[in-house]
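ingest -> validate -> predict -> emit
validate: passed (alphabet ok, no gaps, 656 aa)
predict: started
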Amino acid sequence: MSTTHGPTEGPQGIPPHTVQTGKETVKYDPSQKLTFDVFSRIISYLTPKEAGAARLVSRAWNNWTTIALRSERLIDVNKFLTTITANLKEYPQVVQKCLSFLKPTDVLKTLTLLSLKADFLSLRDFLVKTLSSLPKEAIKALQAALIETKKPLHLEHIPELAEIYQELAEVNEMSKGNEKSERLKKIVGKLVSLGEFTKALEIAKAIPDEYEDEKFAVFEELVRKLPMVSDIDVALEIAKATPDKSWRGLTKYNAFEELERNLARVSDLDKVLRIAKEIPDKYDFVSRVAFKKIADELKLVSSIDDALRIAKEIPDKYDFARSIAFKEITDKLTWVSDINKALRIAKEIPSKYDFVRSAAFKEIARKLEQVPDIDEALRIAKEIPEEYMSTAFKEIARKLEQVPDIDEALRIAKEIPDKYNSDSARDAAFEIIARKLEQVPDIDKALRIAKEIPNKYNVARRTAFEMIARKLEQVPDIDKALEIAKEIPSKYDFAGDIAFEMIADKLARVSDIDKVLRIAKEIPDKYDFARRTTFEMIADKLTWVSDIDKALRIAKEIPDKYDHARYIAFFRIANRLKDVPDISKALEIARTIQEYIPTIKDADRIASLNKAVMEAFRQIARKIEWIPDKNEALRLAELIGDEEIKAATIKAIKNR
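emit:
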């Protein structure tokens, strides 16, 4: 096939030349081809933005034109258009302007060598309209030529469409009537068979309403072929344009049923959302299914911000779909590493979906574990709505375990709000503070912190003071230990018991018995076990008190209620009287012990102590019997507190 072009634009004086193409020789005239001047004219038709894009390839264009002019060779238009396609995908206008300077046959032959991408689908109408201006014979010839060419994407029906456009132009010139409507119906049928639904719909809508049979027949065909409509926007327009009246069983409802099936195949959720919003309320069963699909498929949306935007655009009336959508948003929060972003998203979940919001804020609370800065974690927890903050502050409380500085931990615990349902979090926080006191070496600091735990958190305070009590074992100064033990509130009996029992244990290692007695007296009466133990220990210690008068004084200071301790004390002293060198003193002490015997409550102890005193009198009596001065001996014998022993002693003295 050869084509000769007459002169149009371009430089003159360049002789024609031929290029061998396959088995045929085609004669070309460079003056008929695209030159840089022509390209500049193209740019002048474009918007500034498009012009800037076109200039990206102007240097290559200029080079090709220069080579063509100098070597009298044809400019490689195909190569140029390929470059345009690769570099200017967003500017189909540029390609269209370039193509408009070629003759229709050249346009088609050029594009058959390219793969027309989806970006250039807008060129199809331009190509069809361009070709429809050719004679029918030329279109048939082009159609035949394309049969042997590998069909490029989206170009296979262009000649047929050109013929249909020619026929449509003829029909449009006809007056209204059955014949025109019938021919329009047939044209629509052809367009539908080629998948040209947009043009088919345009023609169907143009059929006057009075030609009802033809109009309904056209829409019947369109609705029947809706499953083949890949463009969901076109499918929606067909459904909306379908007449409301029933015709041979066809209704508008059927059209929307098909639209519902089409939507199920659309993966672009933004597109599904837009279409669903445009569906008339009368057919909202389609919208309901569409919004449910959107909600279910949000899990496939990689960006949580995009997913949230889509969820928020689902209308309120489709409550079930919205609840599912926001549930999907909540599930996605697990994978959001930025906790501030997660918090922002959780706040945007509508309050009506309380269960979903609760789950979202629980996820935020869980994420607080990964926030290294406790103050930052606290700030985030405070931003959570009050009704959901309890879980977050419980996490803050748990984080206090990792805070090394107990004063810092106490400050954070105090900042946990004490209202609503966050009380349990404060409870947990102060209990952690209380347990941490075990690691505080400075007992004064530990005591200060224990006192700062608010009174209402009784369990934490009790634990804290129990920790203080146990730490008394490490206090070397017994007076210091006693002072701290007294600081323990009386309401915490168990802590007090531990503290004063610790004091009692420490007293066993104190050699100064007066100090031991003083401290024993300072143990509060309510801690009876510690006091009793201490006074019994004092009584035992009297065995080693060298000064018998001191021992007696201490024994007499043991309170009456601790009669067992007093019994032990007097028993120990009584057993020592035989070794007292001053017989008068020994007798005096023995008689004093006799006076205290009635204060002992237990009969067995009374008997035991009486026996010890009697034995002391016997031992003293033997010593008296050996006093050389008989008068002195008799005087001392009169001081013996037992009449029988006294009489026997006096008799022995007189008889010697």
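Confidence is low (pLDDT under 50) at residues 1-34, 112-120.
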